[in-house]
Design goal:
Layout (H helix, E strand, L loop, with lengths): L1 H13 L4 H21 L15 H11 L6 E5 L3 H13 L2 E6 L2 H13 L6 E5 L2 E3 L5 E3 L9 E6 L4 H4 L5 H8 L2 E10 L4 H13 L3 E6 L5 E6 L1
Length: about 220
């Protein structure tokens, strides 16, 4: 590990740093942190970034969660964010509803949640992708408990499967159920597909406030003024 850090430091100082060196350093440091978590009896997260939510984006969401008393949080797209959010909500007396379309992947996250002792915090919703009245393929939101929510994280469905407008469905669901002072976070907001969704939402919700949050793949926080 020391030799790897020395190699990358030398490349940085010489101006020859390669993207793969920086990515490797990130994964080594992140891996060491998760090993330490496991040794201390805390939750261990699988690798993040790539198609998963990036740590800088999730940090924005978790900071917002802390601003609410016993918050009800909904996430669209289960994953390592489920573990992190559930662990935080356990301390705050809150709860998490995790919506996922892939039943096999959902089962993997359920086992991880159970192994971390967090099953009592999370309600999983297996919501297959269906076409609605507007011909958008997205989650069957009718399966989600209809309740007011504090924070919503939208990191699904994947546009490679469901198409570029797929996240309009969970976005609309979330904005019509936010408590006063609540927020909706949209991951991957740098992509043209998400930008198009935001333009549609601005037309549908004139009081919509869109706040850019610095994150690797783009993140916006949506609030209703």
């Amino acid at each position: 590990m020391k030799s790897l850090i020395k190699l990358i430091r030398n490349r940085l100082l010489s101006g020859l740093a390669r993207q793969e060196d920086i990515r490797n350093l990130y994964h080594q440091i992140a891996g060491l942190q998760q090993i330490q978590n496991g040794m201390d009896g805390r939750a261990v997260l699988r690798p993040m970034r790539g198609w998963a939510i990036s740590p800088d984006a999730l940090a924005w969401v978790m900071a917002s969660v802390q601003e609410h008393d016993k918050p009800i949080v909904v996430e669209f797209g289960s994953g390592q964010s489920t573990i992190a959010l559930a662990a935080a909500l356990k301390h705050q007396g809150g709860s998490l509803i995790s919506v996922e379309h892939d039943s096999d992947y959902l089962a993997v996250i359920q086992k991880q949640i159970a192994g971390c002792g967090l099953s009592g915090v999370v309600q999983f919703v297996a919501a297959p992708l269906i076409k609605g009245a507007d011909d958008i393929l997205s989650y069957d939101v009718a399966l989600i408990p209809d309740r007011d929510v504090s924070i919503v994280l939208i990191d699904g469905p994947p546009i490679t499967i469901a198409g570029p407008r797929t996240r309009l469905v969970p976005l609309r669901w979330a904005l019509t159920r936010l408590v006063r002072g609540g927020s909706v976070f949209l991951d991957d907001s740098n992509r043209p597909s998400e930008q198009a969704c935001l333009r549609d939402l601005k037309f549908e919700f004139p009081r919509l406030e869109i706040l850019e949050r610095p994150a690797e793949k783009g993140l916006v926080e949506l609030r209703l003024e």
